[in-house]
Structure formats: structure tokens, C-alpha cells
Amino acid sequence: MCPRGEEPVMQVDFGRTSSDYVRHRAGFPEAFFERLDREGLLRSGLRAVDLGTGTGTVARGLAQRGAVVTGLDVSADMLDAARGLASGMGLGIDFRQAPAENTGLPSQAFELVVAGQCWHWFDRPAAAREAARLLVPGGRLVIAHFDWLPLPGNVVEATERLIERFNPGAPAPFVSLSQSSGVYPPWFRDAAEAGFTQLTSFSFDVSVSYSPRAWRGRIRASAKVGASMPASAVSGFDAALADLLAGSFPADSLDIPHRVFALLATRP
User: Which InterPro entries does the annotation name (predicted)?
Assistant: First the structure.
């Protein structure tokens, strides 16, 4: 059953698109980790859990700053990719297959829990309670997103319209693509109901440059394309997107606006 009477989410398996995910999905920018540092959330030896780690982009960012990181995901394919990327960077991250709602990790054993670009896929109340269980008193929860922004006439808006044409009406877990603003007020309620206090947030915008080929790869690695469409439909969509880019956005480099949003909360 979905929390709060929401509609069921579409059947999504990011493991089906893990190769594109590794190559083309940009992780959180350096400015995100710099902001966490300024907020006093990062230090050497910090014990951290990265929920829904995917290919480990957040986990690696934390480990590079000295944290001792455990990364969790339900997809074995994504975890295999995460281990390879971390190993290639010489980072020792403990990746485990487990859901965010029932991690199997010890209580009050961590000082930071992060959920990057994944909170909407969870049973949110259960995940918030599990995060509270994992954290020591005074520990911090960070729920963060890094979303592209569909603006009138830009390539994101045109791409989203094409996605809707190929995969119409697929229920999204939080808000429809065309309505997304990159800010998530409901997450405050999730944290508060789980007992978290001192809720604050920040957001800022950045631009990410993609070649047309890389943008196609990034879109194939999204929930409503490679993670949910049949392979034959993905191929047809990709060809249509290539035609769209060549005809309407022919530049060699596409500047894609993104918004970083983060909710910060404290376990009493």
C-alpha cells in the first residue's frame, strides 16, 4: 500500500539502465558537498549511510571528504556499478543490498543519513522512521534532489513532452514531470512526523553541460524511459530524441539548468 493514499508508482528498475546511468547521470555538484560542509555536516571519520545509493554518487562524495560510508540499494546491478566506480577511485565504501525502510543496520550507529534523488521511491514514513532509528541523538538527516528544470522553450521541456508522447500517463511517485519545480515541501512533514526537529532547507541552481549524445544517454537512464519502457520502445524514443535535438537544438553543447534542493533535519 502506498503512503498517504498516493497512487501506485510505475514499475521502475534502474538496474535495466545501469550502464547509461553510470556514464551519463551527473551526480550532485561539488557545490552541494561544499554546502553540507558549511552546514557542519561533514568531517573526517563521520559515520554515514547513503540510502538508495544507486551508482554511489553521493556515497563517493561523502567518502572523498573522509566519511566512513555505508551505501544501500535494492538493485544488485546498481550496486555492482557502484562498487566498480568506488574501487576505481580508491574509496572503501561498504555497499549492501537493502531497502531504505528496513536497512538491517544497527540502531544509533551513524551520525548522518543521506537520501539523494530517491526519497520519492520509498515508503516515505517508514524510511523516515528508519533514518531516525539509525542516527545517534543529534545526528542529521539530509534528503536531497538534483533535478533538471523544464523552462518555456528549453530542451528539457521539449524532451519531457517527447517522453510523455512515448510513455503517456505512467504514474509518477511524486509530481508529474511538467510540474516539477525541484522543491519538495512534503518532505518536511515526513521528517517531522518521524520525530526530527530543527528542519531547515537550502536550494540553488546550476547549469550542467551535455553533448547531444550525452543528453540522450542521460534521458535513457531516467525512470520513464530506460528504467520502465521495453527495450524496443527505448530505441524508438532515442531515435526520436536524436531527431528532435538535431532539428530544434543543434548546438554541440546543451546547457541544462538544474536545481539542488536539500532538507536538513536533526534527530533529538
Answer: Diverse_substrate_MTase, Methyltransf_11, SAM-dependent_MTases_sf
